[in-house]
Amino acid sequence: MSHRPGQQRQQRPTAQAKRYRAGAPKDYVSDSSDSSEDEAPLQQQKKQAASSSHRTQPASVQIAQKDVKTGIQQEAVSEQVMATDRRMQRLQMAQQRAKAQRKQSSDDEEDEDEQDDEQLARDRQRMKQRALQRAQEEEMTNDALEESEDGESSSEYETDSDDSEEQDTLRSMPKPMFIPKNHRATVLQQEQQKLEEEDREKRLAEELESQRLQSHQLLEEELKKEHIKPVDLEVEEDVDDTDGLDEQAEFEAWKVRELLRIKRDRERRIAQEKEQEELERRREMPEEERLKEDMEHAAKTREKDKGEFTFMQKYYHKGAFYQDMAGKEEIFQRDYSAPTMNDVRKREILPEIMQVKNFGLAGRTKYTHLKDQDTTDRSSPWAQPPSKRSKHHGFSDRDRDRDYEHGRERDRDRQYERERDRDHDRHHERDRDHHYDRERGRDRYRRRD
Amino acid sequence: MANRTISGANWVHGQDPQHLVEKIIRERIYDSIYWKEDCFGLTAASLMDRAVELTCLGGEFGNHEPTPFLCLVLKMLQLQPEKDIVIDLIKQEDFKYLRALAAFYLRLVGSSKEIYMYLEPLLNDYRKLKVRVGAGYTLTYMDEFVDNLLNQIRVCDVILPHLLQRHILEDNDELEPRESALDDDLESDQDDKTESSPSHQRSDD
Which residue in A has a C-alpha nearest to residue B122's C-alpha? Predict the structure, then answer.
């Protein structure tokens, strides 16, 4: 219930419910008051005076006279409703109070301008008295209205009491100035917000537009690119496949190619025919001739050039691939059996340990060559070739004669032995097992019982 | 789905016609852009339109990228056009790359007799052909190309099916021995030089 100017004071409603009010209690005296004891009797006197004077006034609620154009339909309120409706009663009360206060405060307003401490104290006193009066009056009206009221009045009473407090605080505040709509800060803020929103929207629209334009441009570029065929940076121009540039030369070139082809075909045919002939011939030959031819052919193939390897030279395998190129290219015609830089030329001057292949490398083996691995004991009877003499055991003249017949063979055997020894001697000193006693550990694990 | 041989296609040399091209190369062709863009939904007729636009031969070039020629070969294997159409394409002389394409296709799917019969006339065609190799191009001729088809094992990165030797067919009386256009010239030269020696140009039966 705002403090409305131009309203008359109304009579307060008769009965009020007893409720807890946040306002000042009956005998409440605040701490800020200077003389609390002195005020109490004074206040009581004033209350009594006020209550006696207020009771006599008629109950009538002043309703706003102005024609305020609202959307709500305004109905005329009947007198009966006025009397019984509690809200109306409260409104009357509030208006009467406000009137009374106005009368009282009209004097005070002058004082407020020059606010000395004493005047402030006096003002405070007066305010307290009025509050006490009002509390008393409200009590009385509460008693009157107790029966007829429900429980929803507390808030409004509170507002009433708040109102009373508000009205006091209002006086201490600066006088409220009416600010026309144009100058109101809140309205200005709203308008500013509206403007900002509009700006934002405009900006958004502009951005969308620009994006659209950009996408359009990109699309254009893409289409252009697609239309323009990619420029071949390759050597396409160098190789020209247009015909008819030089008929004669082309024809001549073709002629050459064709002749080569014919030649090749002819050679192939001749080779085939020869093979056929050979086949026919062999089929006609008797068995022995065929065999003889085969043996000759085998002997010939065995005569292949093995390559001249020095003693203990590292073997190099030619490789199984590129056989078709083997006859054609120069690089395949080279002699790959010649010793390389790694191969030692004079192995004998090296110490015996170093007279091996792969010396010093991890792949080094003690193996030297096959003959070196031969451990046959030439002196044993097994190793000797079976002489014709020992073939026939026993002693008979017939054998003696026979032996004499084959004297030449005996010489041959001897020669064979000599040759054999030569081989044997050549590598004997290199026999690594020379100092190895094979018999040494033979009986080691035999049980010596 | 788009890479399957059409239903009802005849099997060539005992296998799916598309399998004449090796698996790896076939996969590369399927992944190539030319195949995906231009070879999609082709028919025998529209394939010829594409073939007419060819500008070079070749198998794979650069970093294993198939040429349009090879893609169209695979497409023909997939579509399996009629033999008559293929022979007509070989006989036509307007578009040399189309001719080469048809010749290549016939070499892949035809029987030995057909191959000799229809490809040997092409040995007289000496037009230039561009071949895409490695980083650039080289030049070859139609007769050289056909000669390679008849004699080499691998042309344009495709392993050619086995071709019977000519003399076998000649022995079986299926083919006449080859008569080159220059045979007459050669004969005349030979006769002039050595009249007594037996002329080897005449083939023996």
Answer: A258
Q: Residue B140 in contact with residue B127, Cβ under 8 Å?
A: no
> What 3-state DSSP class applies to A358?
coil
Residues of chain B short of pLDDT 70, as ranges, are: 1, 184-205
Smallest CA-to-CA distance from B101 within B45, B65, B58 is with B58
Q: Does any CB of chain A come closer than 8 Å to the CB of residue B194?
A: no
Give the pLDDT mean for A130-134. Answer: 86
Supply the DSSP string of A172-216, one letter for each residue: HSPPPPP--TTT-HHHHHHHHHHHHHHHHHHHHHHHHHHHHHHHH
Residues of B with Cβ-Cβ distance to A261 under 8 angstroms: 123, 147, 180
Q: DSSP string spanning A270-324? A: HHHHHHHHHHHHHHHS-HHHHHHHHHHHHHHHHT-------TTPPP----SS--T
Convert the pLDDT of each residue in B60-105 to its tens digit: 998 899 999 999 999 999 999 999 999 999 999 999 999 999 999 9
pLDDT of residue B129: 93
**ipTM attached to this prediction:** 0.83
d(C-alpha B20, C-alpha B14), whole Å: 10
For chain A, which residues make up each domain, given as ranges? 186-228, 305-373
